[in-house]
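Box 3.1 A note on notation
Throughout this textbook, protein chains are presented in two layers. The first layer is the amino acid sequence; the second is a token string describing backbone geometry. Keep the layers aligned when reading.
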Amino acid sequence: MAGGSMLTERECRGRERSQTPDDERYSVEVLGRSREDRQRWPDLVLEINGRRIAVEIEFSPKYTPWLADIVSGHRSSSYERVSFYVVSPRLGARIAKLAADGSPLPGFPPPVSRAPTRVLPWPGLDPGRGRPSGAR
């Protein structure tokens, strides 16, 4: 990627493990999980000219409180933007509604940057069938 890099979840986990406490995190804090599992790493991170963009790929619906934790975690992160790619219009609408609600969830710190959240259809999505073209 010219002028930037794309990191997978695995690469982000490795980089975060080797960072100092003052370095910017790749993971986001989610409060609806157990104490041992409170971090979530985006599926991809784009680093472009010193900016970080989180990319979440959602192929299957999630329980609404877990989705709310993910969205709130990103709102309280230092990412400049988060993009959710979805195959289901209903799931996309749920994510967009959660992202539009500006109130922080109980227990979350106030948003650091209030990163905008984009909800986009997965490229090649067959709009009539709600799944990628060619999928059965």
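Residues 30 and 37 are 8 Å apart (CA to CA). The longest strand covers residues 51-58.
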